[in-house]
Specification:
Helix content: 40-55%
Oligomer: single chain
CATH class: Alpha Beta
Strand content: 15-25%
Strand order of the largest sheet: 1-2-3-4-5-6-8-9
Bound molecules: beta-D-glucopyranose
Radius of gyration: 20 Å
CATH architecture: Alpha-Beta Barrel
CATH topology: TIM Barrel
Number of strands: 11
Length: about 425
Amino acid sequence: MKEDKNLDVFPDQFFWGASTASHQVEGGNANQWSAWELEYAKELAQTAHTRLSYLPNWNDIKQQAQDPDNYVSGKGIEHYRRFEEDFELLDQLNMNSFRFGVEWSRLEPEEGKWNSEAFAHYKRYIAQLRKRGIEPFLNIWHWTVPVWFAEKGGFEKRANLIYFDRFVQKLTEELLEDVTYVITLNEPNVYASFSYLTGEWPPQKKNPIMFMKVYWNLTRAHRRAYRILKKAKPSLQIGLAAQLANMQAKRPHSVLDGVSTKWMRYFWNWWFLNRVRRYQDFVGFNYYFTDYFTGLMKRSNPDVPVSDLGWYMEPEGLYPILLRLWSHYKKPIFVTENGVADKDDQYRRWWIEETIVAMERAISEGVDIRGYFYWSLLDNFEWKYGWWPKFGLVAVDREHDMKRTIRPSAKWFAEKIKNIS
Ligand code: BGC
């Protein structure tokens, strides 16, 4: 029985869940990212002031941001070891689904050599989710790759896609028996941009040609993975976790603002999805940003409200994306990530509430939304920023045995979910 009238529009089988990514939570990973962390931690700490002192809460974070340890994923939050405890949290939060990653560098630590223990681990992992009645959403690639693959040039070379194909094939043989939903790639646009255009992430290249090559190759990687997966198990439901932003013209009457906004929308939101439109059973996307553009693609957002990362927050910006996605692709939609960095938990409840309203509106207007995954279940390793941004519904105290504590906003969200089912 739905107790909350406002939530009436959500289908009974709606998936309410949270997301994680292997490298950000597991601990003990050895891949191209962890190698880069060890090499660049000191430099990131030394340049923290220049890069981050504009943030409103710089005083609160500066000690951590200037400490090289902040930039090392290291033990993670020991999710690899403590996953059952974390699944218990999903139960407490009334969630019926969970998005997680499998770590390629664990499963194939050396080229062509499979690690049977790691496969056994993820089998147990999936079985435990199933036992609790939680639908697993398995994510194949979330930016990290084995060192041997990076050394061959990673996704820069089309010829290297055979290694990704082989990995996907192996997953179909070992891990997908009890899985229905598979996400192939997480945010190819973000990865290609930060790793190959702005040079902020490994392998820190600033090369527009290389950027386009990687971006193209990732469209191919997805299409090939889709075919391999479908051939092995036609009932799989396959999609991406695309990064989509709600982009708007700052001055709607200005031709320049209008054109540059449309160009950004096309390139950031639609370019990749258009290329894989026939190779997805659902459209999955992550939403964090509403951006206003002016002049020649210059971002010009309101000063407030901003998250701990300084990101302008407009949760209801999800709505126009949902409508556009539906009209472009007419496929079931999953919000595969959505959330805020909010250490003091002052915005999270508001963010989730407005997000639910945005989904409600879209569903009432006929958009087929099937699930919503908050980012993230737990505080985790936030890539180049390290440990200080807190995205978790559940706080993790890395100083005190990684103690998990459910945040007040998450308790509120759990109640909301309960009223729906
Ligand atoms: C990524 C996550 C990341 C989150 C917050 C998304 O773009 O998929 O890995 O932690 O944003 O930055």
